[in-house]
Amino acid sequence: xxxxxxxxxxxxxxxxxxxxxxxxxxxxxxxxxxxxxxxxxxxxxxxxxxxxxxxxxxxxxxxxxxxxxxxxxxxxxxxxxxxxxxxxxxxxxxxxxxxxxxxxxxxxxxxxxxxxxxxxxxxxxxxxxxxxxxxxxxxxxxxxxxxxxxxxxxxxxxxxxxxxxxxxxxxxxxxxxxxxxxxxxxxxxxxxxxxxxxxxxxxxxxxxxxxxxxxxxxxxxxxxxxxxxxxxxxxxxxxxxxxxxxxxxxxxxxxxxxxxxxxxxxxxxxxxxxxxxxxxxxxxxxxxxxxxxxxxxxxxxxxxxxxxxxxxxxxxxxxxxxxxxxxxxxxxxxxxxxxxxxxxxxxxxxxxxxxxxxxxxxxxxxxxxxxxxxxxxxxxxxxxxxxxxxxxxxxxxxxxxxxxxxxxxxxxxxxxxxxxxxxxxxxxxxxxxxxxxxxxxxxxxxxxxxxx
Length: 452
Ligand code: ADP
Ligand code: ASP
Ligand code: MG
Hints:
single chain, alpha/beta, Carbamate kinase, VC0802-like, 2 domains, six-stranded antiparallel β-sheet, 17 strands, globular, binds adenosine-5'-diphosphate, binds aspartic acid, binds magnesium ion
């Protein structure tokens, strides 16, 4: 059994969905279980609708609902014929009526809670999964729709819900396995789930369909997890930022996980953990070029000083300066407890004799966090920073790669520098707008093909 996940652009329109059907057809003997994202761009639009409605701009929100409805119905008409098309259009339309009603309710309430955001954001995958099942059937595939919320059981932390792996394992065995055994192809939405006990709709956070796929793969002990996307695989850098980024044919779980955490959007950062635990290989493949070799993420990978460069902006640097207390026992524990208490995860850490610097992505609870940190020392916040990471399982073998990296960064202002304890990731914190130039310089230093 394998799990195949199709991202937004890989189910973005009728042609893409038809390509996905062909890909699954070629894999029928391997018993595929399919996880789909919303149609490309749909989640962003849904979130905008929610925000507009809560701000009182109902007309604009409803216009956007109709735009999204038209798009889904048009793609349905292109994919299906006759009664099938009518049936699916009716089903999708009912969901859009629900969306319009939700928008009206939000206008009345004037308040957007994480719970209502999830109710709205989840519609993208609810819609796409219904459409994809119908298209697969039209293609002659024995597809069966599965409501992802019955399988993906989470806590009630809306907009970034934590999956409950035991409950997911049980639900997958009970609901997915019998379909596979009966020769069916289960199709479910990624990204969405429901709260244990309450059954209220949740989401796993943006880009979470990859994570859904690996959770389902782990729950089913799949032999492989395939992430079908719009690039040839994991590349040596984001091709949107760096020209000439190259395909990585094989990469270790740990390196892939570091890259995802430090900005390689091609994989949601949590995707690797469930796969590693069960030793399931993860493939990243291009749905527009299914004949490509893609990237294999597995335990053993070639040892390279630098495998890829990642980067992300919008990072906040938090510095706590406490000359008196830093070296006292338990200070670090107290410090990190403050971050834990405010549900803020820390990415990069560097310490000196008198200060600790950390970067965070999520500033939702920053104000309250700072109040508590002030009890420990002087606190400085630097917004609009970015991080750039050089990742390679052999990065620390000898010193050449490291000094080459630092030389490549050259005169860019570096605010902080950290070498991960596993010594496969060298991360620098720079100004947000320097992320792209820093990535290009580093990529050029390690991957440029030079004319002799
Ligand atoms: P999907 O909708 O299929 O989930 P995403 O847009 O989430 O696709 O992820 C694919 C995108 O990730 C690519 O188009 C590319 O711009 C970006 N990306 C960032 N870093 C990398 C990388 N190292 N390798 C490949 N793609 C990357
Ligand atoms: N549709 C969701 C998003 O855009 C999840 C995903 O595509 O992975 O964030
Ligand atoms: Mg994605």
